[in-house]
Amino acid sequence: MSSFLLGFASATLPCKSSMMIASTRTATRAHSNQGASNTFLSSKGFREPFLHLLRFPQNNVRDIAPSQDMAIKDMDNRNCRDVGVAAPPTIMDMAREWRDGVGIIDFLERRNFLITGATGFLAKVLIEKILRVAPNVGKIFLLIKAKDEQAAMQRVKNEIIGCELFICLQQKYGEEYTSFMLSKLVPVKGDIQESNMGIGNDSFRQITQEVDVIVNSAANATLDERYDAALAANTIAPSWLLSFAKNCKKLSLFLHLSTTYVNGERPGILMEKAFEMGESRIDSSTQSKLDVHHEISLVSDLIETLPPNEVPQKLKEIGLARARMYGWQNVYEMTKAMGEMMINADRGRVPVVIVRPSVIESTFREPFPGWIQGYRMLDPLILSYGKGRLPGFLVDPDTVLDVVPADLVANVIIAAMAKHGITASPSIDVYHAASSTVNPVMACDIFDYSRDYFAASPLTDDQGDEIQITDMEYFSSIDSFSSYIQKDIVEKSGLSKEIGPNSNPKQRSRLEARCKRMAESIIHLAKLYEPYAFYRARFDSWNTRKLMEQMSTKEGNKFPIDLRSINWEDYFTNAHIPGLKRHVIKKASSS
């Protein structure tokens, strides 16, 4: 369950990230002996491949009319949407009428893109939107993990071209759909965790000659990941990709996807501010400064000195300990923050935009409401509650859970990409795609919406009987929640009644083991989510709101980014939970 996290699909990463760490460590040591003007990773470090990576699986707020009814009744009742439903015109809207706007469509047309993490949830939503609104876009190179080019092409056909998300394009182009998609999408066999992205010479030459924008959507979002794997994917790989970007002759923008939770545990309003190298989330007067070089060396030393059978668990423990030491809640947040530091420190004159979404969930409107790929952060809780397996949880009911639909995040990416790609200024700009300051939704609201939905449309058990749920119970300590959930599991399993002269010892033993595993799994999830269940910070989105104001009325309708327009009850009951049933539960059942 630890991989259902913060809007990113959990990456499948090496269980021996040691070679990547060791290779980078060598470069780090080389750097320490050179002048301060050198880049963080030496050119030698970038050239050396990772040979032994084994893979394992506040202001200016105006009233917005509520969104239209988004109910989805069946698979054939979806409306493909090219524009959002506009709110009644305001003074701001009328002032936009004479503006040219950002120039989003003009920017997209004939531009060439390189996208990493291309088969992930958010990347697919981004690709679909670009192809739907800008069919004259140039090539979109997709970095795909595969054994060869043929396998990379097959993955694109199966996971992107054949994906239901692209149904609007399928309907538009009909028999020409596949040929249209293949005329735009260029699969590239590679791996962001390898030198030069593991790209072959021919593809390397083509990409470096033609690409205008690089979008880094690859990440490992597992909250309790091994420290080496998280460092490799979230800290080192983005720096390697930036080095690759410097070879691109036409590059006008490097866009990196991060997370609002790089801001750590600090309370208050957290701003859209780029990280400086060594910046932590604690008072620097009471703690030594964070040294990214040292963190990489530390992991390398541990891998070299620890007994092999102790490495996996120790690397998880050290990752959490180091994150907590410097003010982050887990290894994911810390390594993503260090990835931002690496980019800022090494960007030179490359124009950089960092987009930080909060908790990304299913689509709000486009191309149709409720599309989702796999479990996101809230979904294990919502579905377990609907199945009657989670009648209570460790969470403050008044905690604001910062949620943002995937299609709005894609629109922020595209709008920011156009604004900064046009000017190509060698700056770094940060955008939060977050709802907590402009349209907050609390934990109790989400569970109330879920309760109302499942009361009207209950899930069924293995016997086909409707599952009845009760109001969610809230717990403020892990001890009280653990006692509660263990007792609840035992009672529902019938284990408490399996006592008597006729009870079957073997059957009882199996049932006890099953109950124990279920309880341990839920308690582990509660511990992982505890920092977010009592989170007190909110994320400023001033830059994103300013970007919205710079868009023309037509752009605002075609690329809506205003989270204030969302009616959360409408979203969860008419889009998100029906989408979970259709795209997650049914898919899991069929497989």
UniProtKB/TrEMBL annotation:
GO molecular function: alcohol-forming long-chain fatty acyl-CoA reductase activity; alcohol-forming very long-chain fatty acyl-CoA reductase activity
An individual GO BP term: lipid metabolic process
Keyword annotations: Lipid biosynthesis, Lipid metabolism, NADP, Oxidoreductase
Reaction(s) catalysed by this chain's protein: a long-chain fatty acyl-CoA + 2 NADPH + 2 H(+) = a long-chain primary fatty alcohol + 2 NADP(+) + CoA
EC category name: oxidoreductase
Transmembrane segments: none
The Fatty acyl-CoA reductase C-terminal domain, residue ranges: 513-586
Enzyme Commission number(s): 1.2.1.84
Residue ranges annotated for the Thioester reductase (TE) domain, each copy included: 115-413
Biological function: Catalyzes the reduction of fatty acyl-CoA to fatty alcohols.
Family, per entry: Belongs to the fatty acyl-CoA reductase family.
Descriptive protein name: Fatty acyl-CoA reductase
